[in-house]
């Protein structure tokens, strides 16, 4: 055998050994560990989720004018934790999230919700070969996962006392429905709440009946998995009524009758009137003879421009209305 052939032969043998060892040592190779530094990096491969999230309150939590006003542009640094958080799985489900130093304008973003301590992305499937290396993580579907940010005013604790909890209907079952109702299409990330009139309407029903010159209005929490209205103490739902002409036109201004709300701590003169899941509250309205309209309005912020003369149609949103005959 010529020296040249020997060298070539050894080379071929070496290449074969290298190839075989590569195949056996690194099976269908896990993706190169990408360090994700922005949620915009997820957009290319998860366009639909990204679009839904972009329209959600989660994506607005740092730029939201209401939050900026109340936190004094985050001069109150306590407010940064949940509004520009580091990953939930970094601190664990039993703990409050930590504040993030960078790209705060992305708010509660993909990375805050999905990144695991080892850099992989919490998902429903194990797929180490995909760029983001998803790892099946059952905690993602549990209520404890929303709790680090959403139990500060007891929403998760309220849920625990409901029939939904006993039947295993959790936060994501209502707030992240499957797209087009199909489990194979994944879950909608728009996560609507009080900013969506449609969601607020689905939470309660309103009925009213006459009892002599009085009226009894009944509000039932038929659709929320917790108290109504939950979480933010700024939310308020008010019952108003007004007299109507025989032809249906109003013959007087709206009169306030009742408010559902959990007051701020400094509002010591107010009591908590939140309506528990499945519960009904009866509100008696005296001296409401004749044809009367009863309505439930919802406000994101509790204050009226003129507290003496609240203008629900201009300053709140109509949830439901009923007419009571004389
Ligand atoms: C890392 C903190 C964090 C986690 C985890 C989190 N959220 Fe949120 N969520 C927020 C913040 C902050 C806002 C308010 C953003 C704003 O309006 O400025 C919010 C807003 C919402 C809203 C909208 C409320 C509205 O005003 O319309 C819903 C609904 C919601 N979250 C549901 C959930 C559910 C369900 C989970 C669990 C699957 C969850 N969130 C997990 C921080 C979080
Ligand atoms: C423990 C987590 C957490 C901290 C800390 C926190 N927030 Fe929030 N914040 C939330 C969640 C969750 C929501 C959404 C709840 C809801 O919509 O009912 C929210 C919603 C809000 C909203 C309502 C936004 C809207 O558009 O309706 C305002 C305003 C707000 N926060 C201000 C603040 C201020 C000011 C601070 C600091 C004093 C603060 N938050 C600290 C979790 C937190
Ligand atoms: C280069 C493309 C790419 C990028 C960038 C990427 N992913 Fe993925 N991701 C994938 C692929 C492919 C899958 C597997 C999809 C499948 O098999 O259903 C996946 C799966 C996932 C899953 C699990 C899906 C499930 O059904 O449970 C999650 C969660 C996820 N990605 C989150 C993210 C997040 C968050 C980011 C940004 C930080 C990101 N991904 C960036 C390609 C990507
Ligand atoms: C507030 C937390 C939260 C935020 C923000 C969030 N996700 Fe999710 N994501 C979840 C939860 C909860 C699930 C459902 C898990 C389950 O079904 O068990 C999920 C599911 C997914 C899935 C699985 C497939 C699907 O479509 O349901 C992908 C992929 C995903 N998220 C990617 C992203 C990306 C990309 C972003 C940012 C654009 C993002 N998520 C933002 C909580 C979040
Ligand atoms: C049975 C369906 C259902 C379940 C389960 C459910 N919710 Fe809700 N959620 C609603 C409805 C309807 C509303 C609108 C009425 C309201 O604000 O209370 C709502 C409102 C909210 C809001 C918005 C409040 C605001 O101020 O804008 C947040 C935040 C929220 N839910 C979080 C959660 C969390 C966290 C869980 C799990 C512990 C959960 N929800 C379970 C139906 C549900």
Explain this structure.
The structure is a single chain. This protein is α+β, with helices and mostly antiparallel strands and 326 residues long. It has 2 domains: 40-150, no CATH class; 197-324, Sandwich (Immunoglobulin-like). It has helices spanning 3-25, 40-43, 47-54, 65-70, 80-83, 88-91, 110-114, 143-150, 155-160, 163-166, 171-175, 197-203, 312-315, and strands at residues 121-123, 134-136, 204-211, 214-221, 236-243, 255-260, 280-285, 292-299, 317-324. The strands form 3 sheets. A 4-stranded antiparallel sheet has the order 6-5-8-9. A 3-stranded antiparallel sheet has the order 3-4-7. Strands 1-2 form a two-stranded parallel ribbon. A hairpin with a 2-residue loop joins strand 3 and strand 4 (214-221). The longest helix is centred in the N-terminal third of the chain and has 23 residues, at 3-25. The chain is elongated and about 110 Å long. The N and C termini lie far apart (115 Å). It binds heme C (5 copies).
Q: Keyphrases for this structure?
A:
Immunoglobulin-like; 27% helix; elongated; 9 strands; three-stranded antiparallel β-sheet; 2 domains; alpha+beta
């Amino acid at each position: 055998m010529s020296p040249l052939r020997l060298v070539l032969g050894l080379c071929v043998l070496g290449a074969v050994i290298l190839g075989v060892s590569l195949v056996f040592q690194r099976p269908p190779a896990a993706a190169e560990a990408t360090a994700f530094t922005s949620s915009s990096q997820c957009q290319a491969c998860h366009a639909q989720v990204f679009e839904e999230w972009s329209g959600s309150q989660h994506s607005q939590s740092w730029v939201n004018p209401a939050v900026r006003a109340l936190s004094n542009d985050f001069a109150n640094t306590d407010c940064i934790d949940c509004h520009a958080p580091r990953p939930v799985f970094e601190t664990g489900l039993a703990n409050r999230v930590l504040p993030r130093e960078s790209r705060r304008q992305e708010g509660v973003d993909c990375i805050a919700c999905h990144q695991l301590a080892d850099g992989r992305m919490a998902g429903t499937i194990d797929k180490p070969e995909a760029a983001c290396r998803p790892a099946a993580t059952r905690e993602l579907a549990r209520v404890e996962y929303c709790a680090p940010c959403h139990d500060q005013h007891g929403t998760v604790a309220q849920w625990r006392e409901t029939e939904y909890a006993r039947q295993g209907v959790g936060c994501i079952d209502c707030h992240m429905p499957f797209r087009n109702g199909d489990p194979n299409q994944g879950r909608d990330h728009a996560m609507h709440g009080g900013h969506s009139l449609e969601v607020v309407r689905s939470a309660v029903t309103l009925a009213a009946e006459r009892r002599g010159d009085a009226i009894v209005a009944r509000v039932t929490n038929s659709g929320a998995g917790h108290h109504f209205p939950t979480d933010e103490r700024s939310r308020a739902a008010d019952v108003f009524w007004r007299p109507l002409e025989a032809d249906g036109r109003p013959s007087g201004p709206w009169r306030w009758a009742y408010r559902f709300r959990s007051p701020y701590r400094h509002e010591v003169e107010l009591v908590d009137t939140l309506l528990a899941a499945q519960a009904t509250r009866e509100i008696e309205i005296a001296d409401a003879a004749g044809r009367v309209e009863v309505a439930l309005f919802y406000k994101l912020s509790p204050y009226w421009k003129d507290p003496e003369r609240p203008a629900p149609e201009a300053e709140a949103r109509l949830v439901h209305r009923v007419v009571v005959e004389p």
